[in-house]
Write a structure and sequence with these properties.
Length: 136
């Protein structure tokens, strides 16, 4: 059962960060989202979600996790293999267990993407139990 003690740590303005380097494995060509050897949009989105998870990591009680339920981003600039990518997720609003983030990604030359992302804090065991009962 959730006790929500960790949720008290969720504060507007709190930021999480995630980083990666563009490699052969995270290009548009490698993940089937295009034909070029540039940082893939799905990988940028995953990095933004990772930054949001990092932001919430110390905000949840044992047995809790968060699930992404909305993302709306623009991928505004290509990044070549070897580029260092940094994503950030900053808490914009909190409504109970729903957290909205402003997300951004940058490489060495500046912004490559931006948008909004929403996650909901859930009880992991209860969530998975519902899935097993309903088959999805």
């Amino acid at each position: 059962m959730e006790n929500n003690h960790g949720l008290q740590n969720i504060k507007i303005g709190k930021t999480g960060v995630a980083k990666t380097t563009v490699s052969d494995s995270n290009t548009a060509k490698a993940v089937w989202s295009g034909s070029l050897d540039v940082f893939a949009t799905p990988m940028m989105i995953a990095l933004m979600e990772s930054a949001a998870c990092e932001c919430l990591a110390d905000c949840m009680d044992t047995g809790q996790t968060s699930v992404g339920n909305m993302i709306n981003v623009e991928h505004t600039k290509a990044s070549p293999i070897g580029a260092e990518i940094k994503a950030s997720a900053t808490i914009e609003s909190v409504n109970g267990r729903k957290i909205v983030f402003t997300v951004a990604a940058n490489d060495d030359s500046g912004e490559i993407g931006k948008g909004r992302h929403e996650r909901t804090i859930i009880d992991a065991e209860r969530f998975m139990s519902k899935l097993e009962k309903t088959g999805g």
